[in-house]
Amino acid sequence: MKYPVTLGVVCLARTTYDYTAAEEIYAKIRSELRHLEGVTWYCLEPLVISQEDGLAAAKELATKQIDGLVCISGTFHLGHLVLQLKRELPVPILLWGLPELPYNGGKIRLNSVCGVNLNASNLYKSGYDDYTVIVQHTIDEDWVDAIRVIKAMKMAKIGILGYRADGFFNVGVQDNLLYGQTGALVDHYELKDVHEYPVTEAQVSSRMQQIRETFDVSTLSAYQLDRVVQLAAKLDAFYHEMNLSALAIRCWPEFARDFGVSPCAAMSLLQSEGMILACEGDIDGALSMIAHHALGAETPFLFDFSQVDFQQDFALFWHCGVAPCNLWDGTCNRSLDTYFAGGKGVTADFVLKSGELSVLRIDSARGGYRMFLQKATAVPMEKLLKGTYMKARFERPVKEVLDLVLDNGLAHHSSVVYGTYIRPLELVAKLKGWKVIQ
């Protein structure tokens, strides 16, 4: 399910052009827009022609709390109009030009593209970069999806449980920079807030049945299994009670020592249900998963670039055993195991399914934000390791991808999802003024 947004729409025109044709085109567009998932539309039906129209449209839309504005150049129009709208509506704008109609009597009928050019120039020279331009018959759904991501980040409440993992300075964030760049707010909780969170016997019993049905738990002791089950129930209840968009967890070194097991197995289960849980206190990693989720991508998760093979040209996307269990390849034994932390490191163990992948890291560095984007493909492999992992091949040599990561000092986690989710995020970066590392 894509993140819901509210969008305003206006159609600009001038009576010296074929504004009646523009009205007909605009009516058709309004009808087609209704079919987009998760969008509340405020379409102002009369054409916006005069300066008085522009002021009235801006004031009306300012009452609707829109997340983005679609400005259709039905014909060429006054340059005042978009600037009047922008003054009242500090949101990203889609400048939409219409393909020219067949000539009629030797006169250009719409001159829409010139109107778009006028608007883009006026916005740019006024210092605004948060506009996108199209010339086509239908709306740019990637732009709509970009607005979903921006809204999801703006509304995000990210919890951090404990702190970042010991020594992982590179996943630390500056809270005010994060807020200034995205609108996301961070709330801090102690590990014991989850460890001691009360849950009912019914909640625990339900989780016990679910975990036994999902994983091979034959290597676990009764104590270890109970701790995993208790933690799944506690994390679930805590996450929803605090109304979190995501939770970044200091999952080591104290977690297993104080609770009895690491959180990996419980996180695998809960992420399969749509909860956004980030390892090692990685708040920017959580933000990256929020962005993927806003696009409708299912169960994003964080991975490490744990191995690269330059000869066979692949990377191993691995983590200690936290990937969502619904992404299992359906072939290997999906199990829980205790291969680290002296038997307290209970993790999920399985190979992830094959398919097209999109990789994203929204990353803070040197006083700003940037975005790392790649497409890859997960290919079949045998279950050879503990933890959760996949073999991935990129559209370019893996060495080039690794060089991008290292030369730009990116943090060692990225969010990965199945499917292609690239262009909407490129538009997000453009609208936010972030560098794209690609």
From TrEMBL:
Any one Gene Ontology molecular-function term assigned to this protein's record: intramolecular oxidoreductase activity, interconverting aldoses and ketoses
Q: Which InterPro entries match?
A: Fucose_isomerase_N/cen_sf (IPR009015)
What keywords are assigned to this protein? Carbohydrate metabolism, Isomerase
- Mind listing the GO biological process terms from this record? monosaccharide metabolic process
Gene Ontology cellular component list: cytoplasm
Checking PANTHER family in the record gives: FUCOSE ISOMERASE, L-FUCOSE ISOMERASE C-TERMINAL DOMAIN-CONTAINING PROTEIN
Q: What is this protein called?
A: Fucose isomerase
What species is this protein from?
Sphaerochaeta halotolerans
